[in-house]
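User: Here's a protein and a ligand (guanosine-5'-diphosphate). What would the complex look like?
Assistant: Let me lay out the input and then the predicted complex.
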Amino acid sequence: MGSSSEDEGEEYLFKIVIVGDSAVGKSNLLSRYARNEFNMHSKATIGVEFQTQSLEFDGKEVKAQIWDTAGQERFRAVTSAYYRGAFGALVVYDISRRSTFDSIPRWLDELKTHSDTTVARMLVGNKCDLESIRDVSVDEGKSLAESEGLFFMETSALDSTNVKKAFEIVIREIYNNVSRKVL
Ligand code: GDP
């Protein structure tokens, strides 16, 4: 008989969604994290896509299935199916475009409306490489995150700043929430 502990081989699969206005860099954050790729030109394809990343916490395999709206938001048509079952969310704006920051409360509302569980949420100020044309200060991002109870990070999908960190803080938080429930 095997002497391995019951926990061994235990696997977790979590869905994470990325939301935010068009062109804030959602697809590039995902491709930077999952494939270490960056594209200067926005893709033209419409349709939901996801990538799966595997991590290990406490010897357990944790798979994050990360979904990208892939342009649905251009038509204000992110469907409830997109949000269904999500345990985590990256809510993204572009630090060089204030209107995308002003949209964050609307994305948070939408997330709340459609989610059926506690969602680990990270506010992400993307394109922090564009310091010279910054339109939203770090403090504004921080204080919005604090008032809404979100994690916060500025990232650059272009030069990779904090991309891995942002995803992995969310994944770790989900894992902590779930494993606390299981115990
Ligand atoms: P989405 O519509 O939110 O998925 O945005 P995309 O990932 O398609 O990116 C929109 C545009 O912003 C593209 O031209 C990207 O090359 C550019 N972009 C994305 N992330 C960054 C970034 O971190 N820095 C800079 N400078 N440009 C970015």
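Summary: Residues 22-28, 39-42, 126-127, 129-130, 156-158 surround guanosine-5'-diphosphate (CB under 6 Å).
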